[in-house]
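Notebook entry, cofactor series.
This is the third protein in the set we're modelling with a bound small molecule. For this one the ligand is zinc ion. I'm keeping the input format identical across the series so the outputs can be compared line by line later. Sequence and SMILES below, as received.
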Amino acid sequence: MIKFALLCARGHEFESWFQSGEAFETQSKSGRVLCPLCQAADVTKAIMAPAVASKNEGVRAKPPAQTEALSGAEAQSKMALLDPRERESRAMISAFRRRIFDEAEDVGMRFAEEARKIHDGLVQDRPIHGQANFEDARALIEEGIEIFPVPPLPDELN
Ligand SMILES: [Zn+2]
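Returned structure with ligand:
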């Protein structure tokens, strides 16, 4: 059933239910749709709002077509790009980086060297940060020295 807002030739507005849009066309053409106020059979569809509660709600409730087409891991990775989560992860990375740079000693390019000294007990055990190339990092890990990469801020990836 479809509800149409109707308008008679004399300007009376009223609403009426029909099986379908075609049913209305058929009935109005054969003069069977009558204005309840003046019984005029010259009735047309008035401009009416869509069936949704309100235009804005309809837009909000409808997910983007792109999201609907995604599934599984792909959908989840897309989800990670959504604003709230992105902000959250940025905040976490920022806090993590701040903690490292505040609390750990910056040993710069001597990172691998210092990490080995700490590991071997040659110097005082302390948190350090610095730069290591891929080879250094792999060697340290193979030597059983705990290191972990500092995640770059999303901005720094650009
Ligand atoms: Zn009328």
